[in-house]
Structure formats: C-alpha cells, structure tokens
Design goal:
The complex is a heterodimer of chains A (321) and B (411). By secondary structure, chain A is mainly α. Chain A has 11 helices and 6 strands. Chain B folds into 2 domains: 205 residues, Rossmann fold (3-Layer(aba) Sandwich); 166 residues, Rossmann fold (3-Layer(aba) Sandwich), CATH 3.40.50.2300. In chain B, helix 7 links the parallel strand 8 and strand 9. Chain B is globular and about 70 Å long. Classes of the chains: A mainly alpha (321), B alpha/beta (411).
C-alpha cells in the first residue's frame, strides 16, 4: 500500500468534487424553491467556461501568469466577471422560460428547461466552435508543493509513501469552492434575503402573504445558483485548459446525481454528494476500473435511494433553500 | 370548344425536347461516387483531406463515356462521428440510383452500422481508414454480412489494427526502447480493439503491460485519477487506443500535469489529425508540452510509389499538404474508376469486379488487391514522431508486416 498515492488521489477527488459540488448547489437551490429540475443548469456552467475564455482572449492572456499580483487581479476579474454574467443569464432564463410557466403543469417547465439547454449549446456551437477549444491556464498547471509523507510499518505491513504533489491550481479551486459554499450557507442562514428564500421554499403562498416578494426571491435564487455554476466553469477552465460546448451535459448529469444523492433541496447535501461522487470515480480509477466507474456511481445512488429515498441529508427539510 | 392544333403541337414539341435533354443519349452518362466521412467539427481534419483525395482522383482519372461527381454525406453529429448518422447516410446513398460505389466510412463503429446495409443492397463500399479487424474477419465479420454472405460489399485499403497494434508495440519496444507500458483505451470498437492488440503484441516482444484501463464517453475530460494510478506503476511508455475526440489529446496533456511528461506516448491513426496549428487536433489539444515524445502509427503506406507527384498535385489543387488518408481516399476512388471503365456503372458488376480476389488494381498506394474478406493484401504501417521544428508529425519509417522489411525515411 502506498499512502502517497492514496493522498494524491484524495486530493484529485477533492478538486473534481469541488466542481461537482458548485454545480450541484444550483440544482438543489432551484429545486428547493420551485421544485423544478433545471436541466439547463449544466449548460450555464458550460457557458461560464466560455465566458472565461472570451475574457482571457480579450485581455490577450496566452498562458500562465507568473507574476503573483497580476495573477491575483486576473483571477478576481475572471471570477467576478463570469459569476456576474452567468448570474444574470440565470435570471434572464428564469424570467423568460420558467416564470410564465410557474403555475403550469410540472412537465411544461421541464421541457422548456431542456429547450434552454439546447439553445445555450447551439449558441456556443455557432459563436465559438463545436469542437474542443483550448483555454489558457492562468495558474501554471505544473506548479505545486511536493510533500514527502512519512513511511511507517504496522506490524509486518509496510506502508510506503511516494511524494505527493499539491498543484496550486487545485488548491485554489478547492479553497475557492469551500469558501463559496460557506458563504452560501451564511447567506441563506443568517440574512434577511436568505430567510425570504427559505420561507419561499417551505410555502410560497404563505411567504407571499407575509410580504415576501416571491419573484425577486426566485430570481435571486437563480442568480446565486447560476453564479456558482459560472464559478465552476472558471474552475473547469483553470483545471483542464480546455472546454467544449457539450461538457455541461456530462458534468450536469453528475452534479444533478450529486444533488439527489445528498438530498435534493439541501445545500449541504449537494456539496456532500458532489465530493462523494468524485471520490467514488477517482478510487474506481485507482483500482484500475475506470471503465466501471459510472456503473459504480449509479449503483451506489440506487442503493442510497432505496434505503433513504430523500437522499443522504434529505430529511433536514427545514434547511433547504 | 374548338381544338387548338397549334397549341397541342407546341406542347408535344416541348415534352419531346424535355425528354431528349434528360435521357442524355448524346452526352456522357452522369454517375456518382458516394462519400460518407466525418466532415464537420473536431473530425473535419480527418474527413476533409480524405474527400479531397477522392476529388483529386476523379479529376485526374476521367472515364470515357461518364461524368463522375460526388454525393457527399457527413456522418459527424455535434463534431463526433456517429454510427446512427452513418446508417442514415448509407441508406441515402443506396437510395440514390446514380451512386455506383461508396468511399467511406472513416470510423470503425460507423462501418459496423453501415456494412449490413450496403451488404444487403449490394452497393460496394471502400473504406480508406477503417482498421478494426472484426469488421471483416472471423465470426463478427461474417455476422455483419449475413444477408449476402458470399457477396462481399465492403473492402478497405487500410491495414487492420491487428497489424497496427503490432506496429505500436514495435514502436514502444524497439524505437522507444520501453520495457513496460501502461495501456488506456476509450472503450469504443476501434480504441479497445487496437489497445488489446497492442497489449498482446507488446508482451510477445518481451515487454510488460503494467496496467490496462479504459475510460468511457462520460469521463473523457478527466484522466488525472487514472494517470495517478498509472504513474505509481512506473511505466516506460503509455499507449492510447482511441481518437483525439474521445480523449487522446487531453490524456497526453494531463500526463504532463501529473508529472509524466517525460514518458513517451503512442497511439494509432486515431490521433493523426494534423499539426499543432490545426484546431482540435491531437497536437493542438495536447499542447506545447504534451506533444513532445509522442509517437503515432498510420495504417497506410507513407512512401507511396509516386509520393512527390501526389503531394505536389494535391498541393497545387488545395494549397495544403495531403492528410494521412488523402492517398487512401484517392486509391479507393481510383479502384472504382478502373472498375467503371471496365464493367460500367452497374452496382453488382462493379461490386463483383472490385471484390474478385484475382484482380489487381494499380493505385497511388501501389498494387492493391483484396482477400476473401475484403481486406487489402498490403500490410504496411507508417511510423511518425512529433517534430518540434515543424510542430507536426514527422514520418520516420514504414514497415511491411508481410515481408518484415523496414524502410527508413530519407534523412
């Protein structure tokens, strides 16, 4: 057994999980408030990665920025800009594709969601490309801290340790994702607007009677969820240095699964589900069963849902937002 | 009402004139070669140089009594070759009665969907690039042509993967000097077939396959976990069975990210799709650090008998160098044009003439004939390595796996 490899893989899983979790939050928030499975959400994430690409090419960035102050400014600009743009896109989608159907049978908004998903994909296909596009990685991808873990033996069982590399870009993505999740928790749990969101989620009519502006609250939910997906899009571009018009489908499906696994409607559950799916995937690869990882992920999903139909944290409904 | 003889005569004259011009008794007969290739998106660098080879062949080899044009079909959907689209395309070509033969497809899983249809219709197909052995050989090959088992309607000028996988193993073991290899495939017909042959042949040469894993379509953007596991096994070579669109370029790019950049990387013709300047090509996606130390094989002859003339003719017409399968596309069309001159444009006559094992076709690839399964009797594989000066693949040798003769590129 090699403790170094396992640590490295756990670190890989945290990076992928951070992206799944950011996307899963949007699914779960929207479901929590209007019980809509927003199938266009994965594509909002995808568009986010293209917005980053556009921004970088506008600034003429070709590759890694090695000057720390400039890099910091660039990262702040990338995230602030992409998250704002995607948040607004989310609000526009809600206004025109979902709000008119808010009281329609539930199948109708589901279909418009699928429609929006295709529209976003087509826009990107036409304006950018329908093949993979390279995005400059502003954080040098090979830069990182290499750590040598101690080697030890338990009885006759030797635990070796190869050096572990913590790439700076991955550390950045994990820290950023966790900070955004904590900020979201605080916002939903501690602020007036957060309380409006929670009350709308529990009972829309009652909240309205109590003076909560439903339309603004739902729009705000879409803004936050889409902005988080935008952040995931930036993280994706930083991590892989490539994007494609259809990445939203696969990442969206995984994140939606994460949201269901964690208990849809529950923001902590979505984050937990995202990390869990990433760990399952990564450790299937570690065991040499990459080709089975989907089957393993979904088998676990089925088992969890059979025994806990509301998902892992689904019962704590009061927390949903 | 009084009849109007003048008007009646005028109509008769018009109809007669219309019939006269459409029957074409005076002019040459218009026939078509159907082409089904991926012609959009990420796979345009595969399909485009190949169809240009077909066009060039038609231009340069006129057949008396016929005007030959192309019925062009694109089997890429959203930028990736699609078997269902291929099946629809071959049906369209079968329905076009002026099509007497088809060049294509490019990808093995598309061929799998098309062969039963062309076989049952008796319309000959010639693939410039399909390399999966199961398309023609053994029980799988027989199963694909079960509607007309004795009437072969699918031939190919590309050598099969059992030879290409052998060549990949030869590169890893002999050229790169690696004694251990890690194998990754994309779980598709072509990729897995090629990777399996590589693994067997590499072991036969005396190397050790330290691991073999596959990545399905839903995961082909993140290979870091797989590569972290692979790195721990210290392979001296990484071989990829698959194409650029199913993750070839990203796999190599992420090898650099996880610190495996110095390990040589090899693949089949699925990663042969143009220079680093070609958008979405393997070298473009793998990036400036990933492209070094990469090898690639093409299941086609590189040192074709009149290579210089072919390249200059191609360049004169299109302004670019020929692609890896331009000459193969040219050869397929050449074979059809020879058949057309000999037996006319009847589909069954053309099919029979092309698949008769005794017939030898002089083509741009040299003399080509097809065995009882429809496979070419030419077993030559070309070897390429990334060249930093041109930022492109550079041919360095080719090997004839029938005779065992290696021809090295002129320095």
């Amino acid at each position: 057994m090699d403790a170094g490899i396992l640590t490295q893989q756990a670190f890989n899983a945290l990076t992928i999980g951070a992206m799944y979790a950011l996307i899963a939050l949007g699914y779960t928030m929207v479901y929590g408030i209007i019980e809509l499975i927003n199938f266009a959400h994965g594509d909002v994430f995808m568009v986010g990665s293209f917005v980053t690409l556009w921004l970088l090419s506008t600034f003429g960035v070709q590759g890694a920025i090695n000057d720390p102050p400039r890099l910091t400014i660039m990262l702040i600009v990338m995230f602030a800009f992409t998250m704002t743009v995607m948040g607004l896109v989310g609000v526009v989608i809600e206004r025109f594709a979902y709000r008119p159907l808010r009281n329609a049978p539930r199948l109708a908004p589901l279909i418009t969601a699928i429609g929006v998903s295709f529209i976003l994909q087509n826009i990107i296909q036409v304006t950018f490309s329908n093949s993979p596009v390279n995005v400059p990685r502003v954080i040098e991808p090979q830069a990182g801290a290499t750590v040598q873990l101690p080697q030890f033996a338990v009885a006759n069982f030797q635990v070796t340790a190869s050096p572990v590399t913590f790439a700076y870009s991955h550390i950045f993505i994990i820290v950023l994702a966790v900070s955004l999740m904590v900020a979201l928790q605080l916002f939903v749990g501690r602020t007036r607007l957060g309380r409006a969101m929670r009350s709308t989620a529990i009972d829309r009519e009652a909240a309205q009677l109590m003076g909560v502006d439903i339309n603004t609250t739902i729009a705000l939910t879409f803004f936050i969820g889409s902005a988080l997906a935008g952040a995931a899009g930036v993280a994706w571009a930083l991590n892989y240095g490539t994007t494609k018009f259809d990445i939203g489908f696969q990442a969206g499906l995984k994140s939606f699964t994460a949201a269901v696994l964690g208990g849809i409607g529950n923001t902590t559950g979505a984050a937990l589900g995202g990390f869990l799916i990433a760990f399952i995937e990564v450790f299937s690869s570690q065991l040499g069963y990459s080709r089975w990882s989907e089957a393993i992920v979904f088998s676990i999903l089925i088992l969890v849902l059979v025994f806990r139909p509301t998902g892992l944290l689904g019962q704590r409904l009061a927390e949903r937002a | 009402m009084k009849p109007r003889p003048l008007a009646f005569i005028a109509i008769v004259a018009l109809v007669a004139a219309a019939c006269g011009s459409s029957s074409g008794t005076q002019g040459p007969k218009a026939v078509k070669i159907g082409v089904d290739l991926p012609l959009s998106g990420g796979e345009l660098p595969n399909g485009d140089p190949t169809i240009k080879g077909v066009e060039l062949a038609i231009d340069q080899n006129p057949v008396a009594g016929y005007t030959v044009t192309i019925n062009k079909q694109d089997d890429a959907v959203n930028g990736i070759h699609n078997p269902n689209q291929g099946a629809t395309n071959i049906q369209t070509l079968i329905g076009d009665s002026s099509v007497f033969a088809v060049v294509g497809p490019f990808n093995s899983n598309v061929a799998q969907a098309e062969i039963p249809k062309s076989n049952s219709a008796g319309l000959i197909q010639c693939s410039p690039a399909n390399t999966n052995p199961g398309l023609t050989k053994g029980t799988t090959g027989a199963d694909l042509r079960k509607s007309n088992p004795t009437k072969i309607a699918y031939v190919r000028v590309a050598t099969t993967d059992d030879i290409q996988g052998q060549a990949g193993a030869d590169i890893a073991y002999t050229v790169a000097g690696a004694k251990s290899a890690y194998v990754v495939d994309d779980t598709e017909t072509y990729g897995k077939g090629l990777a399996d042959v590589f693994a067997t042949e590499f072991a036969k040469l005396g190397g050790t396959v330290v691991g073999h894993d596959g990545v399905g379509a839903n995961q082909q953007s993140d290979f870091t976990a797989l590569l972290t596991a692979a790195k721990a096994k210290n392979p001296a070579f990484v071989y990829f069975g698959g194409v650029t669109a199913t993750g070839g370029g990203l796999l190599r790019k992420q090898m650099v990210d996880v610190g495996m950049g110095s390990i040589p990387f090899g693949g089949g013709d699925g990663i042969s799709d143009g220079s680093a300047a070609t958008a979405s090509s393997f070298l473009n996606v793998a990036g400036p650090q990933g492209d070094v130390n990469s090898y690639m094989t093409v299941a086609a002859i590189h040192d074709i008998p009149n290579a210089a003339k072919f390249a200059s003719d191609y360049k004169a017409k299109y302004g670019t160098e020929p692609g890896a399968y331009s000459a193969s596309g040219y050869a397929c069309a050449q074979i059809y044009l020879q058949a057309l001159a000999k037996v006319g444009s009847d589909r069954e006559a053309v099919r029979n003439y092309v698949t008769t094992t005794a017939n030898v076709f002089p083509t741009v690839l040299g003399n080509v004939s097809f065995d009882a399964n429809g496979d070419t009797t030419q077993h030559i594989i070309s070897y390429y390595k990334y060249d930093d000066a041109t930022k492109d693949w550079k041919y360095f040798e080719q090997k004839d796996f029938t005779s065992g003769v290696t021809t090295t590129a002129a320095p």
